[in-house]
Write a structure and sequence with these properties.
The protein has 4 helices and 4 strands. The protein has 205 residues and is of the alpha+beta class. The protein has a domain of 104 residues. Helix 3 runs antiparallel to helix 4. The chain starts with a helix and ends in a 9-residue tail after the last helix.
């Protein structure tokens, strides 16, 4: 074999498979179609590329249908959302571990926050008690007008007092729910802190 022939064969062998002679085949309408280019019958269908020896060197998937595209986009969006959630959780975990030196430090911080919330609740309850005293005072004044002719100013005071009592009761109930929610959140944080610092005994003091 001459030098030039050997060189030519080596150059052909060095070409990418896609650059060498290929055959493209697919199944459509119950038949197999093959050609040196993608057969028209393969449009919109999966097909395969074969080399000169008839060995499959690449598979080509069928184009996605509109419904499949929607499903794929939804799946990609779900994966992105999950990745964002994981990243956010990792950020929150780093922040939690960095916020407290150990469990005792965490307990003190949590108790301080709960104490502040309880003080706020007590002040709200005190204001409610004062408003209810005002209600009784207004009721006593209204006794003088049982037969009618109650002054408009007194009627307005009684109405405003009733509204204030209702609003304050709702605020107290909301604050109570906030305290209960804080207790639950603090316990979850504590368990997460224990899990994240399990390998560091100094953190669990």
């Amino acid at each position: 074999m001459s030098f030039w022939l050997r060189t030519g064969l080596l150059l052909i062998a060095a070409l990418p498979l896609s650059a060498q002679a290929s055959t493209f085949c697919c199944e459509a309408n119950g038949k197999t179609y093959c050609d040196d280019g993608v057969p028209p019958a393969c449009n919109g269908k999966a097909y395969r590329q074969l080399n000169q020896s008839g060995v499959v060197i690449r598979h080509y998937a069928a184009p996605l249908t509109p419904e499949q595209k929607i499903q794929k986009e939804a799946e990609l969006a779900r994966q992105r959302e999950e990745e964002e959630k994981r990243a956010e959780q990792e950020r929150q975990d780093r922040k939690l571990v960095g916020s407290y030196a150990n469990l005792s430090d965490m307990d003190i911080g949590h108790e301080r926050q709960l104490s502040d919330m309880k003080k706020g609740l007590q002040q709200m309850e005190k204001r409610l008690a004062e408003t209810e005293k005002q209600k009784q005072k207004l009721a006593n004044e209204a006794e003088f007008y049982k037969k009618g002719n109650m002054p408009d100013a007194l009627k307005a005071q009684i109405e405003r007092n009733a509204q204030d009592i209702e609003a304050q009761k709702k605020a107290i109930a909301t604050r109570g729910q906030e305290i209960a929610g804080a207790r639950l959140r603090f316990e979850e944080e504590k368990q997460r802190y224990i899990r994240l610092t399990a390998g560091n005994p100094d953190r669990l003091r």
